[in-house]
Design brief:
By secondary structure, the protein is of the alpha+beta class. The protein is built from 2 helices and 2 strands, in the order H-E-E-H. It has a domain of 58 residues: Enolase-like, domain 1, CATH 3.30.390. The longest helix has 15 residues. The two termini are 26 Å apart. It is an enzyme of class 2 (transferase).
Length: 83
C-alpha cells in the first residue's frame, strides 16, 4: 500500500509491545494511539540488513516500564502530554 518503499515486495513483520499507565490520561492516550494506528501512523517499513522490516514510526511509544525517558520507559513525566 501507500508508504511501502517497494510496493509488491515482501517485508518482515515484528513483535511490538508498548505500555501506558492505567489512569485517565493513559486511557485517553490509548484512544489517540488507536486512531494513529488506524491511519497508518504507528509503524513504517525500513530496510534492515538487506530486507524490508516493519519498525516503529515517528510516534514515540514506551516499550519499558522503567529506565526513564532515555530507555523508552517510565518515569517520564511529560510523555502523556507530548505523545
Amino acid at each position: 500500500k501507500v508508504g511501502h518503499p517497494h510496493p509488491g515486495q515482501p517485508y518482515k513483520g515484528g513483535y511490538f509491545l508498548a505500555f501506558l499507565p492505567d489512569n485517565k490520561e493513559g486511557r485517553k492516550t490509548a484512544v489517540l494511539l488507536k486512531k494513529a494506528f488506524e491511519q497508518g501512523l504507528t509503524f513504517q517499513i525500513k530496510p534492515c540488513n538487506g530486507e524490508e522490516r516493519v519498525t516503529w514510526g515517528l510516534i514515540p511509544h514506551k516499550t519499558c516500564w522503567d529506565g526513564g525517558k532515555a530507555r523508552n520507559g517510565y518515569p517520564d513525566a511529560q510523555y502523556l502530554h507530548e505523545v
